[in-house]
Amino acid sequence: MKQAKLFVILALCISSLIILYQQLAQLQQTNIVIPNESEESTEPLLTTTPTPTASSALSPLPPIQDKWRVWPPDLRYNSELILFDQLSALDSTLHNLYVTKNPEEADLFYIPFFGSCYLFNCWINNSWNQTKRCQVDTVYLEPLMNYIIQNFVYWNKTNGANHFMIHPMDSSDDYYSKKEMFQNSIYLTTIGDKRNLGYQNFRRYHNIVIPSATPILDTYHIDPLKYVNENGNPFGRDIKGLFRGCCANVNATDAYSDGIRHVIFNGLKGLPGWNIGESSDPEVYAKLLARSKYGLTPSGWTLDTARIWEYIAFGVVPIVIADGIIEPFEDDTDWDSMIVRVRRSDTHRINEILDSISEEYQKKRERVWRIGKYLVFKNGHTWHFIVRNFCRMLNIIKQEVIDIEGYTYYPI
Ligand SMILES: *[C@@H]1O[C@H](CO)[C@@H](O)[C@H](O)[C@H]1NC(C)=O
Ligand SMILES: *[C@@H]1O[C@H](CO)[C@@H](O)[C@H](O)[C@H]1NC(C)=O
Ligand SMILES: *[C@@H]1O[C@H](CO)[C@@H](O)[C@H](O)[C@H]1NC(C)=O
Ligand SMILES: *[C@@H]1O[C@H](CO)[C@@H](O)[C@H](O)[C@H]1NC(C)=O
Ligand SMILES: *[C@@H]1O[C@H](CO)[C@@H](O)[C@H](O)[C@H]1NC(C)=O
Q1: Where does the record place the region Disordered (predicted)?
Q2: pTM: predicted TM-score of the whole model, two decimal places
Q3: Given the CA of residue 152, which atom of ligand 4 is nearest to it?
């Protein structure tokens, strides 16, 4: 039997691009804070030199009240950092499989673009005014792209078509007025939308939909296994349906969530077994997740249903209400075996719909726990699925055979 050949993406060896990124940061004297996720303490550091008369001020400061000043903030957009860290970790399986230091043998080139990280920093500096850009184009985007275009021959060979970058926020590349500099490249985005609306810019077959980061898993680093058993807690779930999120005062005719959340807060919330609210402390939320059978993931401003990742990580069956959504890795993942899709027009019938599929519940829950969880960033397999999508785009038929705990993904 012939062994499947290793498929290697990425050239511009990633370490040279890390250097590139650092050089640029120095050159431009930007202060782009990339959070070190393991240093999460929000305790203020006391750096004053104590003097005998200052003793009354030498007690710990109270916690910061404004959550946006805490770094890292409730950040669900840091997929770009997580994916970069996972692939660039030397000696990791992913790095050994997919990264080459020889650009000549690379199929694709990774642009280490951290635009959302820059913009978060900008918004934190500006009281969370999300219309601010802090010159992201001139200070960050243009120098980065010029460096790649001027110093390496690979961009010009295809005008960037074999380069890729990550856009993890709602508006994809729309934050950047110079986006035409990189628009020819492949995007990894957290929103997949087949509605073909004028204002949404998902480019089907030119983008790859990736999972989102979520605060509870990727900022607070809560470990689901501390809340559910190894088997995913099949029978200890007494909450029928859970939802935590915006906005209790949405009206049925509002554009936000196309009114879906109006039904959630004004209809489902009053029914037995439902636990619905706008926010929860992370620990409290984790406990609720462990007790819930189903979790609602309605659309918001976009079809990004970020909550799906925390549901999956805790073994909760997601109810997706987002007509037109493309979930990540649909070509390799049988989403319908794990989730319940409800049309917007059926939102008011959700309770009945769940009652009518009660026997299917255990099957879906088991699929979520056994298969769904491998799609969550924390479990380290996301790049395998991304690469399979790259292979389809590039028409590469000899791929890595991926074996994830007994589920084998053969070449396409
Ligand atoms: C993050 O912080 C931890 C603990 O201080 C350290 O071991 C690790 O190397 C840091 N990671 C990065 C990427 O700086
Ligand atoms: C945010 O403020 C800090 C401190 O003034 C500054 O160094 C940094 O460059 C600002 N970030 C952006 C994106 O403008
Ligand atoms: C947000 O920033 C924009 C652009 O600088 C400005 O026009 C607007 O007034 C700001 N909004 C608030 C609430 O400060
Ligand atoms: C790529 O093309 C641009 C535009 O023509 C040019 O300015 C640049 O020098 C070229 N890059 C390389 C490495 O030759
Ligand atoms: C929703 O509609 C009610 C009644 O028409 C109105 O009083 C309320 O202000 C509206 N709420 C929002 C958020 O628009």
Answers
A1: 39-58
A2: 0.80
A3: 13
